[in-house]
Amino acid sequence: MRTVNGVYELPGRALPQFAPDEPAADALPRYFAAYEDDLGLAVRRPVRVRRVRDLGGPDGLLAVDTDETVTRVLPTQRALPEDDGLGGGAGTTRPLPAAPDPAPVARTWHTRALVNATGTWTKPFWPVYPGAADFRGTQLHTHDFGRPEDFAGRRVLVVGGGISAVQHLLAIHPHAAGTTWVTRRPPDWRDAAFTPELGRDAVARVDERTRAGLPPQSIVAATGLPVTDAYRAGIADGVLLARPPFARLVADGAVWDARAAADPPEGWVPGPEHVAADVVLWATGFRAALDHLRPLGLRDPGGGIVMDGTRVVADPRVHLVGYGPSASTVGANRAGRAAVRQVRRLLGV
After folding, report:
1. Which of 85, 178, 216, 278 has the least C-beta neighbours within 10 A?
2. Where is this region: Disordered (predicted)?
């Protein structure tokens, strides 16, 4: 949590004191789950929305087609002890047979308004690079990142210019045989502390793009990378010194053009034309998970969705929370309130 770029508290619930070394993947879900439990929110899960479609009737209803997983409740059972040969069955525990897989149930919900908050986590972005199919090592994405210890003794290429890439490098470096950082643009280090004012300015810039129907930038692309003490140490140690994009992946690593390797533009550091690697970790971000909305035809030809706040201009029944400027905790709080006001106005309540 030490390197998280600011978390805005949920309405009516103060942020707890997070341990600085606790992984954000543990701390934040716990905070959100406690909020859900306290309010008694009736969240149905797990549910997969397959598509949202316009029924085309005079009542203006949308149909939300889902697969809802219904877990079969089995009688309570205890694991059975193995016979240890000494009598009494005090040996190791033999696990019970696995429970049957949950059964998906198809359901369709009809609604006059839809607030879509599907985020980005289920849509990791994998860039297409020459030679990716030839690389014999392991390729994984931030989405699948496990423990830093998993990289022990391995040579790791980290690709990406955001906070996730920086955090991965600092976590992996003590365990790995070596790390190399590769970015599409030179790292955008900012010496100013992350403040609410900086956050609001970043949200406003992303909002300009979505109002124009352009694909949204990430909030971090607008805020840059804050130079914390940990990041300064990483720069001084050479861990957070980036190289320009490689020309292609090869079976045992990556290769750069001679000029890009020896004399890169300002903001990048030079290096060898070939770097051996066992792992390529793609910290290349995520895209909005909106495939289920495709039947509504919301996107402009340029690939973006024209927005007016949270409301989709092409279909005012649909609100996107967590898209564009609301893809952060501070933005999502504000967007959630705005969406509720507009939905109430649409429904006349």
Report:
1. 85
2. 77-102
Within-domain flag for 3: yes
Tally of structural domains, the chain: 2
Within a domain: 179: no
Instruction: Tell me the backbone φ, ψ of residue 164, rounded to 5 degrees.
Output: -60, -45
Rg (CA), the chain: 24
Q: Domain of 104?
A: 47-69+99-111
DSSP string, 1-56: -TT----PPBTTBPPP---TTS-HHHHHHHHHHHHHHHHT-----SEEEEEEEE--
Specify if 163 maps to a domain. no
**Tokens representing residue 191 in the block:** 């010496």
Cα separation of 221 and 217, whole Å? 6
Report yes or no on 12 lying in a domain.
Answer: yes
Per-residue pLDDT of the chain (349 residues; tens, 9 = 90+): 766 666 777 888 888 888 888 887 788 888 889 989 999 988 888 899 999 999 998 899 999 999 987 554 444 444 443 433 333 333 333 444 555 566 778 999 999 999 999 988 899 999 999 999 999 999 999 999 989 999 999 999 999 999 999 999 999 999 999 999 999 999 999 886 666 677 677 777 777 888 787 887 766 777 788 888 999 999 999 999 999 999 999 999 999 999 999 999 999 999 999 999 999 999 999 999 999 999 999 998 878 899 988 999 999 999 999 887 776 666 677 888 899 999 999 999 8
Same domain, 28 and 56: no
> Distance between CA 156 and CA 22 in Å, rounded?
23
CB 80 within 8 A of CB 93: yes
The pTM assigned to this predicted structure is: 0.80
- Residues 54 and 103 both lie in one domain: yes
Q: Could you tell me the two tokens for 298?
A: 């919301």
